[in-house]
Write a structure and sequence with these properties.
Shape: globular
Mean pLDDT: 84
Helix content: over 70%
InterPro entries: FliS, FliS_sf
CATH architecture: Up-down Bundle
Organism: Tistrella mobilis (strain KA081020-065)
CATH superfamily: Flagellar protein FliS
Largest sheet: none
GO biological process, one term: bacterial-type flagellum-dependent cell motility
Low-confidence stretches: 139-148, 152-158
Protein name: Flagellar protein FliS
CATH class: Mainly Alpha
Structural class: mainly alpha
Strand content: under 5%
Number of helices: 5
Radius of gyration: 18 Å
Keywords: Bacterial flagellum biogenesis, Cell projection, Chaperone, Cilium, Cytoplasm, Flagellum
Length: 158
């Protein structure tokens, strides 16, 4: 039996991504990677090797995407540090599959959470500033390059 809400939920999720600011999209990617890693941990607990591998793989795809979209020229030291952090995360995620290591998943989640929180805070700041500047000038909306140049292009898939 199919879920009658499945198509609507998928449409809503696509619409949420399409209308999100750049900062929101980055935060969404971090949030989704965390969710996948939590699913990998749950699969470890129930002994489901395939589900663990699939969830870990999805999280890894997100981290690889985030790393691939870093703009090292514009992002400077911050982008370089993020790149190193992503490589570290990916190495720890290998341990999730090789050793069925829930602690490695916790470690990566612990690294992703503050990044997600920072991007959510950045988005809130952008919204507040856009609202204040819109009231002052009679316009509304986001400024260009809301990410400060760390990312060249961002999408939220998976």
């Amino acid at each position: 039996m199919s879920n009658p809400y499945g198509a609507s939920a998928q449409t809503y999720r696509i619409q949420s991504v399409m209308t999100a600011s750049a900062a929101q999209r980055v935060a969404m990617l971090y949030d989704r990677a965390i969710t996948w890693l939590q699913e990998a941990k749950a699969a470890i607990a129930r002994g489901d090797v395939k589900a663990r591998h699939d969830a870990n793989n999805h999280a890894g795809e997100i981290i690889v995407h985030l790393q691939a979209t870093l703009d090292l020229d514009k992002g400077g030291e911050i982008a370089a540090n993020l790149s190193r952090l992503y490589r570290f995360m990916l190495n720890r995620m290998i341990q999730i599959d090789l050793r069925n290591d829930a602690n490695a998943a916790d470690e990566v989640i612990g690294l992703l959470r503050p990044l997600s929180e920072a991007w959510h805070a950045l988005d809130a700041q952008i919204v507040a500033e856009a609202g204040a500047s819109g009231r002052a000038s009679g316009q509304q909306g986001y400024g260009q390059n809301a990410t400060g140049g760390a990312y060249s292009r961002v999408s939220a898939t998976a």
